[in-house]
Amino acid sequence: MGLIDLNVIVNTIWIGLIYSLMAIPLTISYKVTRVLNFAHTSLITVGAYVAVILSLVYPSLFSNIFLALVVSFFAGSVVAILNHKLVYRRLMDKEASPVILMIASLGSWIFLKYLIYSIISVVSKAIKKDLYFAVPNFNYTFNLNFLGVSNPAFAYSLVLGLSLVAFTFLIFYKTSFGKAMRAVADNPQLAQISGISDESVMTLTWLLSGGLAAVSGVFWAMFSYASPEFADSLVLQVFAACVIGGISSISLTIFGGFIIAGAENILMTILYTLVGLDLSFRPFLSFLTLLIVILVRPPAGAAGGLPYRLKLRRRESKWTS
Amino acid sequence: MSTEAKEAKPSGGILPRLLAAFVIGLILGGIGVFAVQSSQSSAQLSALQNKVQSLQATVDALNTTKVYTIGVSFPLTGELSDVGNQWKTVAQMALNDLNSELANENVKVQFKLVIVDDKTQAQGALTAVQSLAQQGIKVVIGPAASSQVKAVKAYADANKILIVSPSSTSPTLAIPNDFIIRTVGSDAVQAEALAKLAFGQGARNVIVFYRDDEYGQAFAQFFSNVFTSLGGKATLTKYATGLADYASEVAQLSSQVKSIGADAVVMISFDTDGANILGHAKDDSTLSSVKWFSSEGVHGTTQLLSPEIATFIRKVNLLGTRPVFKENPVYKDFAARYKKLTGRDPPVFAANVYDSIILVGKAILLAGKYDGEAIRAAMFKVASNYYGASGWCILNDAGDRMYQDYAIWTVSSVNGTYEYQDIGSYSGGTITWG
User: For A124, how many CA atoms within 13 A lie in the half-sphere containing its CB?
Assistant: First the structure.
């Protein structure tokens, strides 16, 4: 490929998979709980650092990536559930509006961010290692050659990442818990009347969502590195992927993740090579992509863009005529 | 009236009356004099008492320790948070040394620090300086980055708040008669050093891959000017700062190296972005086949000592420049104490942070008053006689360090582990190896 190197294709796939894994739990949590959780990026950071610190401090045990992922999953789940019980549940009991819940989630984000900084500072001094830029100390036992690129971290991310996506679909569409989640998402009152406990479903949703977010952080640390603010730097991409998916469809969220990754890598390469566009425009491309997608194919449930409104108006006029 | 009454005359005569009047007069006069004298001595007593109180106050003042506050704007969060948190330890060490020295010499002055996080952002630095100024603080150590110093300059100049940055090196901020003092040399010289190094190593067609901020822009431009004047060709490619990852940028760099046939990459970065760039470059065959050069930003990062990146550095023979000073006993003592405290070697510009705190403290003492303008004037005098952890801190007219040498550094394998090593130096326009 003359214009686009294989490295660029591999990066697109790798980053797209990670963006999807970061965005899916946000979609699930919003769909079920109706909370737009800005503290989501903190869960990603928690997951990354749990794996990094454990692999550095206890390498004999946690250089095993599977073990590190399991512990990260539960760490993320615990933080997400605590956040729900201590913040969102109390506000929901007082019938707080979604806007209030969103503002509360901003508060949780800031609190967790500085809590993470404090913990990293203490742990960094205790173990005498730099944790502000840290990579996990995993022992990769297999590798695969993908499009001429041989990188064990990519191999693990691809296999485990796709497995997690499949696992999420399985949970959401093939289990009674997933059915309950979808019921609460569609109609909470009807779900309650049918005997589905709103609070139990929400708690389990946060467990799943927090755990997946944490694990996605581990994959990012494998691809790049963990720092206290790496996930905050990705908030645009994560939310963009969710919004492309309408903050409701898991499959469209995955599509959104790959679209954003494609814009940042493939589209950036094309524009840079053909037009000489500055590399510093990369973040702008993510936002531009989001804008184009929601105008052309508006998300379900949102106000929608121009073509959607025109279609709606045509449909309405057909009914009245 | 009866005749007897008319005829009754007082007995004794006029003399007793005169005597009585005289005595009464004496008594009254005495009372008057006494009253006047009393009031006079009361006033004198009062004046004396006032004098005694004033003397007492002076004695009390001489016995009371005066505490001055030094503001600090450090990047405790954000891109430079690793370095910023280490600097906090350095600042505390400097403060303890300064206060101990004054206590030992029986000087009734102590200093304290107020440290604010500027988030490694330009706006964050301005907010930090403003909040310190609102507390009446007249001198601030930091901020770290040139973009931040640029952001606070106008406010500092208008409000006479002295800014002492230990690490801002952009030549565009070398402006005389302002309230910015920098205890590190301007990058105009370092860019020259790096250009001569790259040219001397055989590079003729380089890509300057630089961070798109005040530091990177100025460094890249100065490098390009010198490198071009030597006969080389430099293509400038900037990248956005503050991103989570630079894999995409590294991929574009690789394409560009291939398309223009570059023989070297010159990286102008901070620590985290630089380490991330090298981490991705090591997986690229094109970037592994050209020479690499670097500024000081990435020096000291532990990630460069990891086997994967260190192997890449050895393969491409990455050489860098960094501001340095001749090793001296003050630095050796400082470095040993820092390592004992933290288990790590001092980070980049640590010696400059240390010296900045000491210089500011001594300047406040020399100024005799807590006033930005007075402290600024005193800084030049103090710095001209101060030899600290970073060596001689003499300032030029622009308030920047006048004499700055540079080291040529790389990462080498020593007894099975990787270490940073200085393998040469740049001084007076000449590179010396060894």
Answer: 21
